[in-house]
């Protein structure tokens, strides 16, 4: 065993010194590997960077996770609870009829908005940022960026909600003092909208339907008989971008008319598939050529050194250990090629990201190679290089010790 280890160290040392002695040839082989590997690293970095950036942008916009209810339905509380228990569901809150979900708003300085959409909200609403306060009870609302700008109000200020109804052939007006708990970011919601707690939305629907609503101070109207509530619509968001299509298909299978922003999701998937196909195609052709070229070069190197290798066999180096000579050289050349490739990749990635920096966010990249992908590429290159040396290793195994004496 000790003799085997000694011979292994000897063969490895000789292979390394031979590489340094013929450094010009070794450098050419390393550059050949880098010429194939560096473009592949850049291409894979572009694939990862572009797809990851687009996916992150889609995930950061909650509208891409939303499953939109297109028509009014009749949703039971039990069905809603079962839906909320679905692991694909990230947020769900019921809503009233479309026609009952509007009101007029007036600011203290006289600015006003008509027919502002009322949107139900609850804890965990993806439209709200981490620091935004979600409205609660009957006296609060959150405004969209456009609505708040039109009214000239901000979080903490008050507005007046105005709702009309016709009862007993008379036009009645309900005025509600409402506190603005938060203003949504402009990217989260477009248009004039007000988010309110579900109890306020239900109370306004009952008011419009001609019922008395004591919680709003309205005694005029028919007494509302409590029972199992039914809802016309639903605000629904999937837990992840990948869950959106499946959840939408499940609801359509139950007869509900829903829609999603499927074009944006499909676009990212198509880009991912196209870049993956392009990468596999180029990688396959490039790697095959590189392996054949390296294998031929190593085989030629063995043929040039047949006499020297035969001499090593003559002095007692075992045949199967001597076969490691080209394998060690292949691993050394591959390591140098990998180093050159990553140097070229980092330079190219920095240049690409710098060109597109103006269009990127703080943590976004056009070209980015993850650590695990870099390690995988390095290990794969080393493995393929050793496999390429099999031709040369087979040639070494055919060398006879007597060949070293023929030219003496």
Automatic annotation (TrEMBL):
<dbReference type="InterPro" id="IPR051447">
    <property type="entry name" value="Lipoprotein-release_system"/>
</dbReference>
<feature type="transmembrane region" description="Helical">
    <location>
        <begin position="27"/>
        <end position="46"/>
    </location>
</feature>
<dbReference type="InterPro" id="IPR003838">
    <property type="entry name" value="ABC3_permease_C"/>
</dbReference>
<keyword id="KW-1003">Cell membrane</keyword>
<feature type="domain" description="ABC3 transporter permease C-terminal">
    <location>
        <begin position="281"/>
        <end position="400"/>
    </location>
</feature>
<keyword id="KW-0812">Transmembrane</keyword>
<feature type="transmembrane region" description="Helical">
    <location>
        <begin position="277"/>
        <end position="300"/>
    </location>
</feature>
<protein>
    <submittedName>
        <fullName>FtsX-like permease family protein</fullName>
    </submittedName>
</protein>
<dbReference type="GO" id="GO:0044874">
    <property type="term" value="P:lipoprotein localization to outer membrane"/>
</dbReference>
<feature type="transmembrane region" description="Helical">
    <location>
        <begin position="379"/>
        <end position="397"/>
    </location>
</feature>
<dbReference type="Pfam" id="PF02687">
    <property type="entry name" value="FtsX"/>
</dbReference>
<comment type="similarity">
    <text>Belongs to the ABC-4 integral membrane protein family. LolC/E subfamily.</text>
</comment>
<keyword id="KW-0472">Membrane</keyword>
<feature type="transmembrane region" description="Helical">
    <location>
        <begin position="321"/>
        <end position="347"/>
    </location>
</feature>
<keyword id="KW-1133">Transmembrane helix</keyword>
<dbReference type="GO" id="GO:0098797">
    <property type="term" value="C:plasma membrane protein complex"/>
</dbReference>
């Amino acid at each position: 065993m000790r003799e085997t280890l000694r011979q292994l160290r000897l063969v490895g040392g000789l292979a390394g010194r031979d590489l340094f002695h013929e450094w010009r040839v070794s450098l050419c082989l390393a550059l050949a590997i880098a010429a194939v590997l560096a473009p592949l690293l850049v291409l894979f970095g572009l694939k990862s960077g572009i797809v990851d950036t687009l996916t992150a942008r889609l995930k950061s916009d909650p509208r891409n996770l939303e499953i939109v209810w297109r028509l009014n339905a009749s949703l039971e509380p039990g069905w809603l609870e079962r839906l909320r228990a679905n692991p694909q569901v990230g947020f769900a809150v019921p809503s009233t009829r479309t026609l009952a979900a509007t009101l007029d708003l007036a600011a203290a300085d006289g600015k006003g908005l008509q027919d502002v959409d009322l949107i139900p909200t609850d804890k965990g609403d993806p439209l709200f940022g981490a620091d935004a306060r979600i409205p609660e009870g009957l006296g609060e609302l959150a405004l969209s960026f456009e609505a708040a700008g039109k009214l000239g109000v901000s979080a903490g200020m008050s507005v007046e909600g105005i709702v009309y109804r016709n009862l007993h052939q008379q036009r009645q007006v309900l005025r509600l003092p409402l506190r603005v708990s938060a203003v949504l970011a402009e990217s989260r919601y477009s248009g004039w909208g007000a988010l309110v707690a579900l109890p306020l939305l239900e109370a306004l629907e009952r008011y419009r339907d001609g019922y008395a609503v004591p919680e709003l101070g309205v005694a005029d109207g028919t007494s509302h008989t409590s029972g199992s509530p039914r809802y016309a619509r639903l605000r629904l968001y999937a837990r992840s971008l990948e869950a959106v299509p499946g959840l939408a298909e499940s609801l359509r299978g139950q007869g509900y008319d829903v829609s999603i922003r499927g074009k944006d999701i499909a676009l990212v998937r198509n880009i991912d598939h196209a870049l993956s196909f392009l990468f596999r195609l180029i990688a396959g052709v490039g790697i095959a050529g590189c392996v054949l070229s390296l294998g031929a070069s190593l085989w030629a190197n063995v043929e040039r050194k047949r006499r020297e290798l035969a001499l090593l066999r003559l002095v007692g180096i075992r045949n199967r250990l001597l076969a490691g000579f080209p394998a060690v050289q292949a691993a050394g050349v591959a390591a140098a090629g990998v180093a050159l490739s990553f140097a070229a990749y980092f330079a190219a990635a920095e240049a690409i990201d710098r060109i597109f920096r103006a269009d990127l966010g703080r943590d976004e990249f056009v070209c980015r190679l993850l650590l695990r992908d870099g390690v995988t590429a390095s290990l794969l290159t080393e493995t393929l290089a050793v496999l390429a040396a099999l031709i040369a290793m087979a040639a070494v195994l055919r060398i006879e010790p007597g060949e070293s004496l023929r030219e003496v």
